[in-house]
Amino acid sequence: MSAQDSIAFPPGTTSVTRRAALGGLALLTLVNLLNYLDRYLLAALLPQIKASGLSLSDFELGTLMTGFIIVYLLAAPLFGALGDRGRRPRLIALGVALWSLATAASGLARGYAQLFIARAAVGVGEAAYGTIAPALLADYFPRTIRGRAFAVFYMAIPVGSALGYVFGGLAAQAWSWRAAFLLAGLPGALLAACLLWLCDPPRGVQEPEAARAPVAAGVGATLSLYAALLRRAPYTLTVLGYAAYTFAMGGLAFWMPTFLMRERGLPSAQATTAFGVVVVVTGFLGTFAGGWLGDLWQKRSSQAYLWLCGVATLLSAPVAAVALMASARELYYPALVAAELLLFMSTGPVNSAIVNLVSPAQRASAVALSVFAIHALGDVVSPALIGALSDRWSLRLAVLVVPVAVAASGILWLAAAMAARTAQGTDVRSAAH
Asked: What does pTM read for this prediction?
């Protein structure tokens, strides 16, 4: 293997070819796209499911996402521990196969209980993928370009979400909401087989030798590791900010097509398509800009990813409020575009910050604990809470919890950046003595 074929690995480590790293990024990004298509397919199908013979309330519709997220967050710590020890491509492939089967099963549900169980089962498969894939990617790319690699990976969130809205709306209109679930479940089997061929490099291959200590095995060691992570102020504040962000994004993504139909009078197909276009354009541009700016800023500050997240989300909070409160299209539509653009700028940087705050051998566990926390405190709560508030008052008032959560996330991320700077200063002074 020539020097040109490998991606800037430290001397004396096992290299991964550039082709393997870029191919792995491409495949994992494609799977991530399918991941979010499946996740937000349900949001596009809410009106059709509500109008069907299942006779579900808004609260029950909201709990379909809540059930998925609860299972997802409960399974995440298990897969995080496995991901720091086992063969990562096999675990990811297993997850993709499981969630695809559960998605197809959603289209066969004959009542609320069956639909709830099928959607909840999707969470098992997505937990395997969501916790392990970022740790694997971190071993494909060095720190100097990791932000951009993660930006590419997380661009699949807006693109996949938008495809979920658009595909769900069109498929339900052409056939039925059941057909939409069945068709969305098909590609997973093929992708699961492809994942088995991914390269699984040594953990920490991109880091200095001192950062590659293995993780101790056993339940007690795993619990001790999670407790130690929570005692680190920069990590905990980052995750809490991510939880507030996930609360806002989860609630907005789940209810926005229905909000546009009910409160802004848009037809069903137009609401799902219009919001899908906003998500894909702003998500693509915002995620790319966030990754690029984060890497550029990282040259000046090791806390750059967190500073960027804090500033972008604080700027987006008032704009999101305008998007949800204004009734004129010439006001709410541009505000929605601007708010989504600013929000998506944090997607790559916050995940880069999480993997950079811990040692390579702890990354899957750190991501797993983050997944557990952000969903337990975030989008487990927001879809059902907004649905319950909508049943009590109106959807117009219920969605106003979103900009409040956005502002909270920005404040917490700025606090995390300051805590990380303080901790780094303390480490430097300790080393000097």
From this structure: 0.68
